[in-house]
Design brief:
It is a single chain. The chain has about 525 residues and is an alpha/beta fold. The chain has three domains: about 100 residues, Alpha-Beta Plaits, CATH 3.30.70; about 300 residues, 3-Layer(aba) Sandwich (Rossmann fold); about 70 residues. The chain contains 14 helices and 22 strands. The strands form six sheets. Strands 7-10-6-11-13-14-15 form a seven-stranded parallel beta sheet, sandwiched between helices. A hairpin with a 5-residue loop joins strand 21 and strand 22.
Length: about 525
């Protein structure tokens, strides 16, 4: 594993917070960097350099340059504040500061900003149903057989997984092949860097969470011929950033460091089932809903930077607060525009499962982006989709992250009539393979109807069709309610409800009718 000199200080969380009980956590952002004698090979691996050359990404980026060590030392010596985590992308360092220390740091000539941080990471699910047949529904929804026919299984693709621990991955029958076959290439604990083993040793009760995430990306049991994930032959780089025993602010910083490490290792595809929102140990540190804007959370900024500048593709759980009336919406970094944010559906009916977080109305872009089935949280719909992306990367490694992002939305079953419940719906492997050849392909599965009356009916439908899904929306994307309505003798009747401007009707053959009420 790569050991970076920029990680200057490691503080044990419990000791640090005890010693700084009267402090608050801040990010200190610097004005500039020392660009003299910089060479990209100092911070980028040969694989990272190869990736950037392949996709036309600049090898010389200001954000890659390490922090100025003199600034770090000056902060410490002048204020007595110790660095917690550093970020070369953000050109800053996080630390705990008292009011007096903050005033000292703010007056340092090289400091651009001192910003108070209120953050928390929440594992989006900790209850795992171990029944592989049950979890396999997501693969069926997305059309796994189409990838199998094309011999796509993630071979040659490196996937970074940022999560809690990966305890018992070596003995789980669905992930043991990843260990025995050497598919785990590196692992790193950003909470306790002295730990070198995230797989056979557990330190918190949440340390199996990452193992179950691995199942949904690359899980496969050769004896039973059960495939959990779409990418059983991918290679994996594992990072632990989640402290399962408590929810505290350091985890955000650890996550950003893990992302930067993976970029330096040349990893293009990241799956993370963590999210910042509410339920903090200290309620005063909770986010407000309007802060889910893709710009406020530092982790969301890092994701956007990775997407815009580094060519990375980051798949993120949308969150599990959809049934919580006090929150409901997605968490950070799922709010970042460049994150592929993943919601969750029910199994036989592809409507939103109750817990799946929705996209906030104030965002100028659609969230979540796509969805698939998971009974136990978006923690497991996220990696299922990450496996799907890995297969596309295997099929067409020349595609940029932005091209893949476009394909992932266009191949989903609701496209182009997405909503803030499911995004563009469930990705379809057969469509994705066609879009790789021609991204402008029209699959002719959706139609639009302008209706002046308060009722609309569809007739001559398949008489075997029993019901349809309806999303009643206040505008193009914001859902007021979703319903399952009956289809009787090949006829479907839709009545406009109060406040509804558009209605999306999804039939059992996955064809979509968009009604625009006049």
């Amino acid at each position: 594993m790569l050991k970076k000199k920029l990680i200057l200080f490691v503080i044990v969380c419990v000791q640090f917070y005890t010693a700084n009980a009267q402090s608050s956590k801040y990010w200190i952002f610097f004005k500039d960097k020392d660009t003299s004698n910089y060479n990209c090979s100092m911070v980028l691996s040969p694989k990272a350099i190869e990736n950037r050359n392949t996709h036309g990404i600049s090898l010389y980026q200001y954000t890659d340059i390490p922090l100025n060590n003199a600034y770090l030392h000056a902060v410490e010596s002048s204020s007595g504040a110790l660095s917690i985590c550093t970020s070369k992308w953000l050109n800053g360092v996080s630390t705990m500061l008292t009011a007096d220390q903050k005033e000292i740091v703010e007056h340092l000539p090289f400091v651009k900003e001192v910003r108070l941080i209120d953050r928390n990471i929440v594992v989006t699910s900790t209850h795992v149903n171990p029944d592989p047949a049950y979890m396999h529904i997501a693969m069926l929804q997305m059309g796994l057989t189409n990838f199998l026919k094309a011999s796509l299984d993630g071979t040659g693709v490196n996937i970074g997984v940022i999560d809690a621990g990966f305890f018992l991955a070596q003995s789980d029958k669905y992930t043991s092949h990843l260990i025995s076959e050497g598919k785990v290439k590196a692992q790193r604990d950003f909470i306790d860097p002295t730990r070198k083993d995230l797989i056979t040793v557990s330190v918190t009760g949440a340390d199996e969470h990452g193992k179950n995430v691995l199942r949904m990306i690359g899980g496969y049991d050769d004896k039973q011929k059960v495939q959990f994930g779409m990418a059983p032959n991918a290679s994996f780089y594992l990072a632990r950033t989640e402290d399962g025993d408590r929810e505290h602010r350091l985890e955000e910083d650890h996550w950003i460091m893990a992302l930067e490490w993976m970029d330096s290792m040349g990893i293009r595809l990241i799956s993370t089932s963590l999210g910042y929102a509410i339920k903090m140990d200290d309620p005063k540190e909770n986010y407000t809903q309007d802060q889910m804007d893709g710009k406020t959370a530092v982790i969301s900024k890092a994701v956007q930077q990775a997407f815009d500048e580094k060519g990375m593709f980051i798949v993120v759980s949308a969150g599990n607060e959809g049934a919580n009336p006090a929150w409901q919406i997605i968490s950070a970094p799922a709010d970042a525009k460049g994150a592929l944010s993943i919601g969750a559906t029910n199994d036989t009916q592809w409507d939103k499962i109750d817990y799946s977080s929705i996209g906030p109305e104030h965002l100028p872009y659609l969230k979540p982006n796509v969805s698939c089935y998971s009974p136990n949280g978006t923690s497991f719909s996220c990696p299922a989709v990450a496996g799907f992306v890995a297969c596309l990367m295997q099929k067409a490694p020349q595609l940029s992250n932005k091209e893949l992002y476009d394909i992932m939305q266009k191949c989903s079953h609701l496209y182009p009539y997405g909503n803030n419940y499911l995004g563009y719906g469930i990705p379809q492997a057969d469509r994705a393979l066609v879009l790789i050849k021609d991204v402008n392909t029209d699959f002719k599965t959706s139609t639009m109807k302008e209706v002046k009356k308060s009722k609309f009916s569809l007739s001559k439908l398949d008489k075997e069709m029993k019901e349809a899904i309806v999303f009643n929306k206040k505008n193009e994307t914001i859902v007021l309610n979703q319903k399952i309505i009956p289809v009787k003798k090949g006829k479907l009747a839709i009545k406009r409800e109060g406040g509804v401007a558009r209605t999306t009707v999804v039939l059992s053959d996955n064809s979509v009718v968009e009604i625009i009420w006049q």
